Amino acid sequence: MSKKGLRHSKLNTMNDFKTSENKQSIDKELARRLYDTEEYKLANRIGIVLSMDHEVDTYNIITTMLNDNKQVFVPETDYLNKIMHFKSLLNLEDIGPDEKGINHVTEDTEITDNLDLLIVPGVVFNQLGYRIGYGGGYFDKFLSYNDQPTISLIYDFQLSDFEPEVHDQPVEKLIIVTTK
């Protein structure tokens, strides 16, 4: 199956799963496993997305990070130039939709590429950590120019065999929870 076909298929599965009675407990288990990693314990500056409802819930994770005195950074995307940096999130009340309807920080805070850990989102992953995202290439581009530990939190049904393309950047660690 093509990358586009895999992305479409897995997005449908993710959208179906978002109403599952198990999603909340599975998201909590993924978060618990993240907090147990050495990468999380050692990191001070952590990049993470503001999740959409079909993705692993990052809002509770961000709340825990802030309570753990971690510095939280979320994507700040320049769609015109197709680049992404990370903007400091001090409070979950300081977010709102950007020009594409994706939540971002609305306050004037630090923008950086200097992170101790990056929680990388995706739609499809293979066992080697390569991922298929939403097709913009923002994370692959960011990862090709920046070096920090990377972790993805994924549902077991997001795993699939596919051949990465030359520009694809792998995630170092996958935390996977079975959804059944």
TrEMBL record:
Catalytic reactions of this protein: (6S)-5-formyl-5,6,7,8-tetrahydrofolate + ATP = (6R)-5,10-methenyltetrahydrofolate + ADP + phosphate
Cofactor(s) essential for the protein = Mg(2+)
Q: Which GO terms describe its biological process?
A: folic acid-containing compound biosynthetic process; tetrahydrofolate interconversion
Q: Which residues bind substrate?
A: L50, E55
Q: Tell me any Pfam family this protein matches.
A: 5-FTHF_cyc-lig
Q: Which residues hold ATP?
A: K3, K4, G5, L6, R7
- Which GO molecular function terms does the record list? 5-formyltetrahydrofolate cyclo-ligase activity; ATP binding; metal ion binding
Keywords for this protein:
ATP-binding, Ligase, Magnesium, Metal-binding, Nucleotide-binding
Give the EC number. 6.3.3.2
Which NCBIfam families does the UniProt entry name for this protein? Answer: MTHFS_bact
What protein family is recorded?
Belongs to the 5-formyltetrahydrofolate cyclo-ligase family.
Name of the protein: 5-formyltetrahydrofolate cyclo-ligase
Please tell me the species this chain comes from: Staphylococcus gallinarum
